[in-house]
Amino acid sequence: MADSRLSTVPRRRGLRLATGAAVLALLLAACSGGESGNGGTAAEPVEGGTLVYATGDAEPTCLDPHVGGNYPQALISTQYLEPLVGRDAEGQIQPWLATDWEVSEDGLTWDLTLGEDIAFSDGTPLDAEAVQANIEHLQDPDTASSTGFLAVQKIDEVEPVDATHVRFHLSEPDSALLESLSMQWTAMQSPAGIDRGMEENCAAPIGTGPFTVSEWVPQQHVILERNAEYASHGPEADHEGAAHLDRIEWRFLPDPATRWTSLQSGEVHVIDNPEPEAIVASENGTAGEEISHLDAPRPGSVNRIELNSSQAPFDDERVREAFIRSADVDPGIETLYRGVATRSHSPLSSVEPMAYSDPELFGTDLAEAERLLDDAGWEETDAEGYRIQDGERLTVRFPVSTNQSVAAEQALFEQIQANTREVGFEVILTPLDLSAWYGALAAPEGGGESGNGENEYEAVSAPYTKVGPDVLRTLYHSGGTEPAPSGYFANLSQVTSGDLDALLEEAARITDPEERAALYEQAQRQVLEGYYILPLYDQQNHFLTRGVTGVTTLGTVSTPTFVNAQLTQP
To answer: Quick check: 147 and 185 in contact, CB under 8 A?
Structure first.
């Protein structure tokens, strides 16, 4: 039997982001960073007031990120729910609600020490039993979790040792456990709040964060009030005590032009998902010196097009490569994004230290694409110039989430549609809202519309955010083709490779950084060289601010936090 003695996991607390005009100038000059100020205008921060945030992401159907688990839930829940640990910009895990942790030498037992005198906003103490209730909530099929469910899948049992010590017993080692526990989808909630039932908890989850949910008017706004008893100051907090703001009005404004004009007019203070033109205008000053840009690429995977390798035509690697060789995305990214997005050639985000790239695999070569399609038996064309085989057209159904793809990205997909037609692909783009998009990707039960058990897509751009390189296991392990309790399955390219599974499983077991990096490089090579995906760029995460200072983003899933934010007046 392996030695089960506990050894301390190395960790360090990262430096909090500094504030001030000098640091802000450096951040803006770099077009990136984690804090937003008030541009070039002289402004005095004030106490109190209501910050207005306008989001272009889909309105959550539930404010509890344990249920389902998408990015819009992470955005808003950052304000009222907090995770057990944090992470800095270099990927180092930091203390938060849990102040210390130890892991046994066999990797199967984790002991976490919780901060003292921390309570949820309803007065329920944050103790070991509360952590147990949260893990059980995530693992309960009735919760219908996806992202959080997958993150804590290896926790076999939660043992409350005493009030401030909780022990996790794992079914197998999990080198990504702390990364998983740093995400909003595993953030801690009041057990008393959970016990109210899903409907009430979805409407107003109860956390330890700097704000509380006081009102939700669907399709309009959520009102968040300052938590006067806030005591669990995380890595981004730069002061003791409660937040400076009295409240946040979180508006749902799906139209990017409306969000942009609302920011310019001063009606709102922060917007997300701006179009590239707005970002450029904020950077070069043509929109006014008082507007600032905060660039916070998401960790985990990149924005990419996944090719469904489980069914025709992309069950043939030659056809997948032909599609990628003819897509010719570089000119579109350069023109449509105006320098805001940088082309990726990796499955992992540029903020992930273990990302591996291979640009040689993605060069445009129409002649090679033509040859590959001929070799794959798609030699004939119909009257419209599309390739056919056995009377079937070379068709690629491509559902597009209008909530997750800005106009520039949708235009890029249209360019890919035109470019791949040059070699005979028929790409059918179908714009859908988020709910219908999830429905189009759902695993078929008895065949769906096609009646033959096939999925109703051949290509899809499906953003997925998970901290750390273990996202590769979520996205490309064959187990990811099975739906989570929410009904969503993450392996949309439907890769089923025993060799790849073995690499990802081994990487998830070991903690040595060099060995882990080598395994993840091999895994990324297999994904790229199999032409299962067409990488595009980092998952874009841009925020524009006006009339507010101290806006930062978490080093975990790059969501904004307003714990330090203050409204300003000239």
So the answer is: yes
